[in-house]
Structure formats: C-alpha cells, structure tokens
Design brief:
It is a single chain. The chain has helices at about 20-30, 45, 70-80, 80-85, 110-120, 170-190, 190-204; strands spanning about 5-10, 35-40, 60-65, 95-100, 125, 155. By secondary structure, the protein is of the alpha/beta class. Strands 1, 2, 3, 4, 5 and 6 form a 6-stranded parallel sheet that branches. It binds flavin mononucleotide. Flavin mononucleotide (FMN) binds next to helix 1 and strand 4.
C-alpha cells in the first residue's frame, strides 16, 4: 500500500541539552510511522524566518520550563510568528507540545498551556498525550510511560545539573510514544481539511 508522505517539525529550544534529548526521542517516534519525515529545528533558527513552518503538516513545540513558562528564546520564536498569525498561514495544521524541567512538578503545566494557547491563536489543531500512566498496571514508576501523568502534552524531568540524557527510562519511552501518536494523527488528518477550513473562513 502506498503511504503518503507527511512532514513534521519538532521545534525546540534547549540551553543544556535536556530538551534537545527529548526532542530527538519525539522525532524518532514520529519517524517510526511509515511515510513520516520528522525534522528537528532549533527555535532560534526559525525566529528570523518563521515562514519555514508552512512547509510542514504537523508542528511539535518543545521548551524547557523557565519560571513556569517557555524560555525567552522560545518566546522570541513565538513572537516572530506574528505575520503568520495575521495571515493565518498555520491554520488547520496539527500541533503538540512538550516541556522539560528539573522538579517533579516545576509548573510545567503552564508551559504547555502557553504552547496550547499559541497554537489555538494560529488556528491549529491540538494533539495531546493519550497514554495511560503505566505504573497503574504494575510497571515500575521510573520505567512507566507517562509516569508524570500529563495528557495535555508531554512532560519530562531531568535533575538539576544532570547529564543531558539523564532521564528516567519512562520519560524517554513517553517521548517516543508521543511522537509516534502525533505522526499517526497527522497521517489520519487529511491536509484538505486544512484548506476547507480556510474556505469556511473566507465564506463566513
Ligand atoms: C531561568 C531558569 C528557570 C527555570 N525555571 C524552572 C521552573 O520553573 N521549574 C523547574 O522545575 N525547573 C526550572 N528550571 C530548570 C530547567 O527547566 C531544567 O534544568 C531543564 O532541564 C533545562 O532544559 P535544557 O537542558 O534543555 O536547557 C529553570 C532553569 C532556568 C535556567
């Protein structure tokens, strides 16, 4: 059976490598879905030319949590998309988000919320993290997918000043499954629905 190719960008900022490590796992997960091309792009690279985002069917945002929100570098990228917002050029594309922080809670939820609101302002369609915490089924906590219990997006935790890949195996597994799920959703979401949405807007 012929599989239609779909392009996904994982747009991230990472000052010390933890968020980049998770971004790589998300991209691997997406790539494992037949017909998917997943590309990692640093947010700072897109800030001067955000129009590159229109070349993708799905966009995954990734930022460390800084003081309960996205990092300044990631926010600069977000703000650079103002022109795309005015023209609604990202409308109808699928979006999802992930964040890494050093504390078990660490106010990661508000980082995901800012990515969600950003995506909604762009008229995008949000994809969450529909994985049940595996520790409920007896998997050891550190090895359990979605051990941190986040459904609105992916959360991962790495200890302060730890190595960039010092994640619990469960967080790495969650990132892989999260990317895989996102790619499947992108494949199941016909690109033409994007254009019919635009047409609805024009007709309204
Ligand atoms: C300015 C700043 C603010 C931070 N704020 C938080 C926070 O609110 N909650 C938290 O748990 N960790 C916080 N951290 C820790 C980072 O989220 C954590 O070290 C993360 O892994 C960094 O990701 P990176 O290695 O990709 O840069 C903060 C770190 C910095 C430098």
């Amino acid at each position: 059976m012929m599989t239609t190719n779909r392009k996904i960008a994982v747009v991230f900022h990472s000052a010390h490598g933890h968020t980049e490590h998770i971004a790589q796992q998300v991209a691997h997960g997406a790539h494992s879905v037949d017909g998917t091309h997943a590309q990692l792009i640093e947010a700072a690279r897109l800030t001067p030319e955000p129009g590159l985002l229109t070349g993708f069917d799905g966009l995954v945002w990734g930022s460390p949590t800084y003081l309960g929100g996205v990092s300044g570098v990631f926010k600069s990228f977000m703000d650079a998309t103002g022109g795309l917002w005015r023209r609604q050029e990202l409308r109808g594309r699928l979006a999802a988000g992930f964040t890494v922080s050093s504390l078990p809670a660490g106010d990661k939820q508000s980082t995901l919320l800012s990515m969600f609101v950003f995506s909604m302002q762009h008229g995008m369609v949000w994809v969450g993290n529909p994985i049940l915490p595996e520790q409920h089924g007896g998997t050891p906590y550190d090895e359990a997918a979605n051990r941190l219990g986040s459904w609105s997006g992916l959360m991962a935790q790495a200890g302060h000043a730890s190595a960039p890949d010092a994640f619990a195996p469960g967080d790495v597994k969650t990132a892989h499954l999260f990317g895989q799920n996102f790619a499947r959703k992108v494949h199941g979401f016909a690109p033409h629905s994007r254009f019919s949405e635009t047409a609805c807007k024009a007709a309204a």
